[in-house]
Amino acid sequence: VSGRLSDEGHECTVASDGTSALRQLNAHQFDLALLDIRMPGKSGTDILREIQVKYPDTAVIMVTAVLDVETAIESINMGAYDYIIKPVDLNMLAVSVDRALDKRRLILENREYQLHLEEKVEAQTQKIRNSFLNSITSLAYALEAKDKYTSGHSQRVTETAVAIARELGMSEESIEKIRLAGLVHDVGKIGLRESVLKKPGRLTDQEYRHVMSHCEIGERILSPVMEDEEILRMVRHHHERYDGTGYPDGLSGEDIPEGARILAV
Ligand SMILES: [Fe+2]
């Protein structure tokens, strides 16, 4: 048996009984064990049981006399890959060994795959999140390029809003939303005419109405990348006033989203 399997390219170790087999299994890692059911000392079934517990990655094929076929079938139920009836047909043996090794490889690969799947999903999620944050940062940069004043302003609004949200004991998730909304709440100013945006002194009524439109423009600019309705609402409503005199919708009191009320401070 050993000679034939060696010819097939397998590296074989022979053990004279169960105890010696276990000693060898303990010393080296084996892909596969061929176990005679009847051995001096511990039986093949005993060894199978121990292999299943201590070396579950070792495939087992039982070798049995015709009389022991029932025990062999029992061994399959216990987790052996196959059984071969004595006298051993070496061709059958080679086929059975190859099949068992293939099956073992698939099982190990599948386990490895399952193990890494979760990590991969996690890494992918992180990538998507980073790409989202990058697109938000990119929008903030775009506004900064148009209006220098706003960059420091957005940063300060964000810091203050986050501090207020913390003080109010809001959840980390809500605080994160407020932080994102703070960074881009004025992004709609990208859509304002520079002559109005940078006009020194008082604005005419018409110019003021133009400035007011930055809330709705901001909501629109962000809507393709921002799936979170709450954040979009914070951006839209950050100029509402508690007494209802704000814009764009003249909301009052608690009709104004809490995040928008915090940003307004
Ligand atoms: Fe604003």
Automatic annotation (TrEMBL):
Q: Which Pfam families match?
A: HD_5, Response_reg
* Annotated ranges, domain Response regulatory: 1-101
**Gene3D superfamilies, per database record:** 3.40.50.2300, Hypothetical protein af1432, L1 transposable element, trimerization domain
Domain named HD-GYP is located at 128-265
A single GO BP term for this record reads:
phosphorelay signal transduction system
| Domain HD positions | 150-265
Q: Give the organism, scientific name.
A: marine sediment metagenome
Quote the protein name from its UniProt record.
Two-component system response regulator
